[in-house]
Amino acid sequence: MPVKTLINPKVKANLDAAIHAELFAHNLYLHLANQLQRLGYFGAQKFFLGESSSEREHCLRIVGYLNDVGDCAKVPAIEAMSDKVSSLEDAIELAYRTEVTLYRDYVAWHAEDCLELHAHDAEARGIADGDWVGITSRAGETVLRAKISDRMQPGVVYTTFHHPFSGANVITTENSDWATNCPEYKITAVEVARVSQPSEWQQRYRAFSEVQQALLRERRREAEPTR
Ligand SMILES: [Fe+2]
Question: Is 0.90 surpassed by the pTM of this model?
């Protein structure tokens, strides 16, 4: 008897769309690698071949997840790649635009990484829903918005690690368990406290990122053909 799926239709639709997006990127980077080989950029060709296989890997992870939760992943048709690439700059511009579009699509599903915690832990630390909370581990610290949730048990907090500004990887350690050497990348002991603003590294990161975006906008304006 087929297994009943464990995910709801909205999540399923998002994951189907993500499979399409990853396969699209896989095909696009293969296309760019072919075009760059034709132009004689062998180093860049190799780079895009590597990117193409990692996009396929991403697709397989989503496929594996869907199948594991009792669904059956659909394999979509991917449109033929036809963008003309006549320089290395064309290839980079196309790849950049695709990455930005995909990132925006993902952000639409999930706008911010929050720290989910139980009402009991929040109350004990004077934390209200939406407050900035500092999370400190043996490895580092970051600051996220609090989301009080009954999905959490007292004593356990949880966050996603989608946005670079959140920096969930800053607090996890490189330790592994002594018996199997299984890494604990996703689990770590932390303390949580109410704070008034993002951490110092996050403020530096945001300022750096804003400067980079402004430079990019300026460069684009300069490159626009004058009418
Ligand atoms: Fe990807």
Answer: no
